[in-house]
Design goal:
Largest sheet: 7 strands, antiparallel
CATH superfamily: Exo-inulinase, domain 1
Order of helices and strands: EEHEEEEEEEEEEEEEE
Radius of gyration: 23 Å
Strand content: 35-45%
Distance between the termini: 30 Å
CATH architecture: Sandwich
Structural class: mainly beta
């Protein structure tokens, strides 16, 4: 979606502004994985990169007598086989690390893992910035990644220009089509008046069609720059949110069966950023 939209509700807090392209989207089975970049909705901000300093290369030492070198015989088949083995080993290690993280988080929450698969995993930081108050900035994940019953996990850090005010870090899920037209769900982890809250919303396009009253919790670290470990478990029409290993909210809704995913931020202070790290989605199916 390239156009900016304001919500017709009294809250006036949702709007699509820009995404940040992120190196995200790792699709894994129990033994293999693949990755796909996030799909931006607006022009992403340039991200500065550090250029590594050149390393010192030692000069070859002088030798008193030349040593004869045998001419190597190319073996293309052996080289390809070795490369495939290295790639398979890396994939297996990566998959094992992801599944280990999933198992640890679900076990800590008392949730069963079952025989599912990791459909997204990105251990790197995914920053989503907002520069306009009461406007949603978001990044949609790869549309090929869909889910109904799933677990979402991320270590979310929120930072705002001002130390007081409202800031939300958003997880968008079961996106059933076009965000500007079709229904989808959203979980908001917010800091309101210095207290952490979890909200769930039913969205039709960018209009709130229904929401819960919001559950406040002292388990949510609300200070500016704080990091919270968030786990959302979706099973059929029940959605359970855990923050820092503690259950903070349960919500029920039957409107949307399955769909895609996205990340976002919203604030009323003038500028904010929600940074998602160690982010994964585990499909129970």
């Amino acid at each position: 979606m390239n156009e900016t939209q304001r919500l017709p509700t009294a809250k006036k807090w949702l709007r699509s502004v820009w995404p940040l392209a992120a190196a995200m989207s790792v699709v894994l089975s129990c033994s293999m994985f693949s990755s796909a970049p996030a799909v931006p909705t607006n022009t992403p901000l340039p991200i500065a990169t550090n250029t590594p300093n050149p390393s010192n290369t030692p000069l070859p030492a002088d030798t008193s007598q030349p040593v004869p070198t045998k001419k190597a015989t190319p073996n293309r088949g052996a080289t390809q086989a070795a490369q495939q083995q290295d790639t398979a080993a890396a994939a297996t290690n990566f998959a094992g690390e992801a599944l280990g993280a999933v198992s640890d988080s679900l076990n800590a929450a008392g949730e069963t893992m079952g025989a599912g698969s990791v459909v997204f995993w990105n251990p790197a930081d995914i920053p989503v910035e907002s520069s306009k108050p009461n406007v949603v900035s978001h990044v949609e994940m790869d549309p090929s990644v869909q889910g109904a019953d799933f677990a979402f996990h991320s270590n979310i850090t929120w930072e705002t220009k001002q130390k007081v005010g409202i800031v939300y870090c958003l997880f968008m899920f079961r996106i059933s089509g076009d965000l500007s037209m079709d229904p989808w769900y959203m979980m908001r982890m917010g800091r309101i008046s210095g207290l952490g809250h979890i909200y769930f919303d039913v969205m039709q396009g960018w209009t709130i069609m229904g929401e819960n009253n919001g559950d406040a919790s002292n388990y949510i670290r609300d200070e500016n720059g704080a990091t919270n470990e968030v786990l959302l478990v979706a099973r059929a029409n029940q959605f359970t949110a855990y923050v820092n290993g503690k259950q903070v909210s349960v919500w029920w809704n039957t409107k949307i069966d399955r769909g895609g995913f996205g990340l976002g931020t919203l604030q009323d202070t003038g500028a904010s950023v929600c940074t998602f790290a160690n982010t994964w989605i585990y499909d129970f199916e």
